[in-house]
Amino acid sequence: MGGDTFPPDVNGAASFSVRLAAGIASRGHDVHIIAQSHDGRQGAFREEHDGQMLTVHRLKSFRYPLHDWLRAVYPWAIHRNARRILKAVRPDVSHMQSHMLIGRGLTTESAKRGVRVVATNHFMPENLIEHTPFPRFTHRFIAWLAWKDCTRLYRKAAELTTPTKRAAAYLESRTGLRGVHAVSCGIRMSDYTPDFEDKPELRIAFCGRITGEKMLPDLVDALARLPRDLDAQLDLIGEGDQRRALELQAQRLGVADRVHFPGRVSDAELRRILTRATVFAMPSTAELQSIATMEGMASGLPVVAADAMALPHLVRDGENGYLFPPRDVAALADRLERVLRMPREEREVMQRASLRLLEPHDIDTTITVFEHLYRGEPVTDPVTDVGPLTSKVREQFRVLARRAKGAVAE
Known about the structure:
Layout: H1 12-26, E1 32-36, E2 43-49, E3 52-59, E4 61-63, E5 71-73, H2 78-89, E6 93-96, H3 102-112, E7 116-120, H4 139-154, E8 159-162, H5 165-175, E9 181-182, E10 203-207, H6 216-225, E11 233-237, H7 243-253, E12 259-263, H8 267-276, E13 279-282, H9 291-298, E14 303-306, H10 311-314, E15 321-324, H11 329-340, H12 344-358, H13 363-375, H14 391-409
Parallel strand pairs: 1-3, 6-7, 7-8, 8-9, 10-11, 10-13, 11-12, 13-14, 14-15
Antiparallel strand pairs: 2-3, 4-5
GO molecular function: glycosyltransferase activity
Keywords: Glycosyltransferase, Transferase
Protein name: D-inositol 3-phosphate glycosyltransferase
């Protein structure tokens, strides 16, 4: 398996790669990862990830100068390194998680040797172009070139996947390829702790990269528009190049004391922050699935999200949260206020709806589908759509909320 991000990197592609690799290893398979080195060492190392021992082939890398943390391997060495690793490992299948550098070498050299290739697309030009030196008027042309480039590589794959049906349709429209599988990145819900009790303060949570495509200035602006009596707090969990700009924006808007930057935190700390939150917010317009939003839902949070890309697959307007028109700050503030002012029982209905909608995204289903794809066996894409929240189910959720409230009172 190879891609351009892997732990200790923190982003959606890295999270998916490590969960899938560990899940496959837990079923008795020998999993090797090609990833960038963060300490200058190059070689094969046994590393523990997500409770499993994996062989990680670390390649020398350098920090990409236009990005605050992304490390890139040396392009002129990637094919040589891929050949060396493939010769040593002799894999049955190669899985490309990114087409930029490591995945490019892995896929090209695997195809030459007749090794089966499976590719997963996490790529959207909007997430990368801002980290290039090209002027804005060239971005559309650069995006077109980027899609042409990744299409050439994806044609070498026997199977192509992406996390959602909407992302699959988007990928097919951009590349002209057909038969893209929609396979959720998956999540293990038991790792997270929902809290249905009244909480001492109202907190809005976001987690992810603190970068431009996440539209976080809209979220800070929306916080400033909320009525002061709510005294809502905002936790922006993660690191990125926009942090200083957001700190200055919060000062300018008079909400610096209510905007918090926990930074890059451990998994345990992330789950603790999500458990204590009241609502999860995702203003991004470029999400192919959004593992971060799934983590918020697994923590039993209502979600306020932009009505863009894959987010409507996770958020049912009025059921487990609200959608708002992308970049509409007034609408974002309105939807947040609706959730924050809800009586506890009504908010619990949304919390339980989040858990209900997330159930089909179980990581074990994802692992099974990829096992079949690796073997070249036919698969049926997992069904992740859940029927609408009926009045009967909604009432059952209300009954649970009233019972819980009564038990606390006693």
